[in-house]
């Protein structure tokens, strides 16, 4: 039996923590779809196509991962793809409270299951929002995001 999962998120921008989860998911499951979820009412620092390109560049050596854009309910993507399992990274108890509610809602809406992958301790403090805040203030984001993302952030805030 082949098992596929969807890793959803905003990924604005992708961090080393996200990439670690994608790579571990790819080592655990047969196929991984990374879904970059765009929010039409909230413009990010990077547009969805830019976010996808950054993730694809980092995962070029991982052949069972596909990176796609999605708008709207996640359960619709799950139904369209016939992939009824989400895989998400979990950093902390704070994440857990929010993630548990979403997991239960997605199960309520469409029977979609969520599996949580514990974030590597080295990445537990990393979030896209903090990365953006630091970059906007001219601080260093080395060790939080890939080098190419670091360069893209510097160019965007310049
Ligand atoms: O990286 P983020 O911002 O924590 O990801 C949150 C995301 C995109 C996974 C969540 O907002 C989401 O699932 N959005 C799609 C819309 C949806 O299905 N909403 C109902 C969630 S129960």
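Q: What amino acid sequence fits the structure above?
A:
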């Amino acid at each position: 039996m082949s098992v596929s999962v969807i890793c959803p998120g905003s990924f604005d921008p992708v961090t080393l923590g996200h990439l670690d989860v994608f790579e571990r998911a790819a080592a655990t499951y047969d196929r991984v779809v990374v879904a970059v979820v765009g929010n039409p009412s909230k413009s990010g620092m990077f547009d969805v196509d830019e976010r996808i390109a950054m993730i694809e560049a980092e995962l070029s050596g991982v052949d069972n991962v596909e990176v796609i854009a999605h708008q709207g309910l996640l359960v619709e993507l799950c139904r369209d793809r016939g992939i009824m399992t989400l895989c998400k990274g979990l950093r902390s108890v704070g994440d857990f409270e929010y993630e548990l509610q979403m997991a239960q809602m997605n199960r309520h809406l469409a029977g979609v299951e969520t599996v949580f992958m514990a974030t590597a301790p080295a990445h537990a403090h990393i979030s896209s929002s903090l990365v953006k805040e630091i970059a906007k203030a001219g601080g260093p984001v080395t060790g939080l995001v890939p080098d190419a993302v670091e360069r893209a952030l510097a160019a965007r805030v310049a």
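Q: And what stands out in the fold?
A: Helices lie at 16-28, 48-58, 74-81, 93-110, 128-136, 147-157.
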